[in-house]
Specification:
alpha/beta, 44% helix, globular
Length: 363
């Protein structure tokens, strides 16, 4: 998106956001990727609702598993039961179902795992009722944005889910679900999603995958960060960033095997990228006069295996942990405090979780 395109988009949509805020500072929720670790963010939202202090966000953004949580967060506490069913009481159905012939089959296919279980999960919760509710809230000026990655261009694509929902009918429902599946389709694990588009008078398919491939979360697109001056809407805004994962690696001995080395390397890259983006988000928020609060899963909390492959019991435990910490006012910190926090790594287990991510606070 060019600066000119952003200004045109902002003139249309940000005035609606300002209207929906009704004279109050804008509240923005940003949800990162993280696979099964998204149970943490879902739990935080549920616990926050129980406090009665969760704001009606004017803008909600999501990437990967954050995209799956985002519609529920956008619609508010009345949808917490569905959110808890998806992440706090997950079905035993495994999302990671290997293709026939395992790794050999993946070499000659699109992915290591089948895409059907993920599509079925999205279809179960992204119901016609949910899409109609999103459209109704979007009509009030609120924004629900989800990011995917266009593999052909290597760039993030931001989808206005409220605008899609507002189209109504089966085609809107199908596209709404397709975008959610695409945003959560980890490259290599799940097959890419082909989305038909029309440009320059021609029709073709865009190959879309996990939004985390281009950005671990969606706060300010690149073009926004280079705009001169401040964006009026962000002056005084409250921005809440939920990182569904670690922002510091757990010290551990890496087995001398190809799989273990690849997994550990990928985790290290993800944590490093997340830390860098949190720093950029904090600098941008300060320049705009916005108040940024961050929460993430402490490094002392064990996320065993790949984040995408958390067992239902582990997801349930993580959901309960996030829910409890939110109820106790112990999730939100400044970006600097989160990035600098050093936890104890050796004592925590799922049955004996570590202390909450932040000291007690009233926000």
């Amino acid at each position: 998106m060019s600066v000119r395109q952003f200004r045109r988009w902002a003139a249309i949509h940000l005035s609606g956001v300002e209207r929906s805020a009704a004279g109050h500072p804008v509240d923005i929720l940003v949800l990162s990727g993280g696979g099964g670790a998204g149970a943490y963010g879902a739990g935080v939202l549920a616990g926050w609702s129980q406090l009665g202090t969760r704001p009606p966000f004017q803008i909600v953004t999501g990437v990967s598993v954050g995209a799956l949580i985002a519609p529920f967060a956008f619609l508010g506490p009345h949808w917490d039961e569905a959110l808890a069913a998806a992440f706090g009481r997950p079905k035993a159905m495994r999302l990671l179902t290997r293709r026939m012939f395992g790794w050999f089959g993946a070499l000659f296919g699109w992915s290591l795992y089948r895409g059907a279980p993920l599509r079925q999960l999205v279809d179960r919760y992204a119901t016609p009722k949910l899409v109609r509710a999103v459209a109704a809230q979007a009509a009030r000026g609120r924004l629900l944005l989800v990011a995917t990655t266009d593999l052909d261009t290597g760039q993030a694509v931001v989808w206005n889910m409220g605008a899609i929902a507002a189209r109504g009918g089966p085609r809107a429902l199908r596209l709404f679900r397709t975008v959610l599946v695409a945003s959560a389709s980890i490259p290599g694990d799940f097959p890419p999603v082909l989305i038909p588009v029309k440009a320059g008078g021609k029709r073709f398919d865009e190959m879309q995958v996990d939004g985390s491939a281009s950005s671990t979360f969606l706060f300010a697109p690149g073009v926004v960060t280079i705009l001169p001056g401040r964006i009026k809407l962000l002056d005084g805004a409250h921005v809440y960033l939920i990182i569904n994962g670690h922002l510091r690696e757990r010290p551990q001995t890496t087995p001398n095997s190809t799989t273990a080395i690849l997994v550990r390397s990928a985790d290290t890259v993800l944590v490093s990228d997340s830390r860098s983006r949190v720093k950029l988000a904090d600098a941008f928020a300060q320049r705009q006069g916005a108040d940024l609060k961050v929460t993430g899963i402490p490094a002392s909390y064990p996320l065993e295996g790949t984040a995408a492959d958390l067992e239902p019991a582990a997801m349930r435990a993580l959901f309960i942990y996030g829910e409890r910490c939110a109820r106790e006012h112990k999730v939100w910190s400044t970006a600097l405090a989160v990035l600098n926090r050093v936890g104890r790594f050796h004592r925590a287990t799922h049955r004996q979780p570590p202390p909450c991510p932040a000291p007690a606070n009233t926000r």
